[in-house]
Amino acid sequence: MAGKPSVVFAHGLWADGSCFSKLIPTLQAEGHEVFAAQHGLDSLESDVACVNFTLNHVPGPIVLVGHSYGGTLITKAGLHDRVGALVYIAALAPDEDETSQQQQAKFSPTPVFEHIEVADGRLWLKASGVGDFCGDLPEAEQKLVLATGAVPVADLFDQQVPGTAWKTKPSWYIVANQDRTVNPELERFAAKRMGARTYEVDSSHVPMLSHPEFVLDVIRDAAKSIGA
């Protein structure tokens, strides 16, 4: 295992660490120590704290990978001194003076938001919206995504904590061209603003599940850049 950067994943809404299940075994086999932070989407502060204690647990340097809202988390937690590279997958990447919602509001809303409901203070994805979230997966996989997804508190995107790691850490960004959850134009804007190495793939919001080899190649590139 010596000589390989570690890899830490941060998931987004309506997901958990299993959304990286097509990446983790390969990265482990290639000699990386890998962990997926299992944050509960209870608050931005607690989610960032979860990513940070996961970072504390693995040796550096670390490639920190965030999907969707996980991009907000790696933007905050990526200031950790063990993090050498950031990889954003169809992700938010708010600036210091932006919340996740403020960044989203600058772009046209996507179809998935026609299929959400608030119940028990949580923001639920309806079954009718799973196609807008991961429509390029087989039906059985779409059902699994819906069944295993953690459900966020309703005001999660309005919360704020300090930190903008992409201003000081090298970044990679995967744009999902067919994304119906995060606007692809937001993704392109975020990638350009951070000066990221940018890759585009014809994918739904979940390229790590629909195009895992593509995503693995980007993570490998980030890992090679920081060495050990």
Helices and strands in order:
Elements: E1 6-10, H1 24-29, E2 34-37, H2 44-57, E3 62-67, H3 70-77, E4 83-89, H4 100-105, E5 116-119, E6 122-125, H5 130-134, H6 139-148, E7 171-176, H7 184-194, E8 197-201, H8 207-210, H9 212-226
Parallel strand pairs: 1-2, 1-3, 3-4, 4-7, 7-8
Antiparallel strand pairs: 5-6
Helix pairs in contact: 2-3
Overview of the molecule:
The chain has one domain (6-226): Rossmann fold. The chain is α/β, with parallel strands linked by helices and 228 residues long. It is globular. Helix 3 links the parallel strand 3 (62-67) and strand 4 (83-89). The model has no long low-confidence stretch (mean pLDDT 97). The strands form two sheets. Strands 2-1-3-4-7-8 form a six-stranded parallel beta sheet, sandwiched between helices. The chain has a two-stranded antiparallel sheet with strand order 5-6. The protein has helices at 24-29, 44-57, 70-77, 100-105, 130-134, 139-148, 184-194, 207-210, 212-226, and strands at residues 6-10, 34-37, 62-67, 83-89, 116-119, 122-125, 171-176, 197-201.
| Biggest β-sheet strands, sense, barrel | 6 strands, parallel
Give the full name of the CATH homologous superfamily: Alpha/Beta hydrolase fold, catalytic domain
Return the average pLDDT rounded to an integer. Answer: 97
CATH class: Alpha Beta
Structural class: alpha/beta
The end-to-end span amounts to 11 Å
Counting DSSP E segments of at least 2 residues, the number of strands comes to: 8
DSSP helix count? 9
User: Helix content range of the residues, please?
Assistant: 25-40%
Judging from the principal axes of the Cα atoms, what is the shape? Answer: globular
* Sequence stretches where pLDDT stays below 50 over 5 or more residues: none
Summed up, the domain count is 1
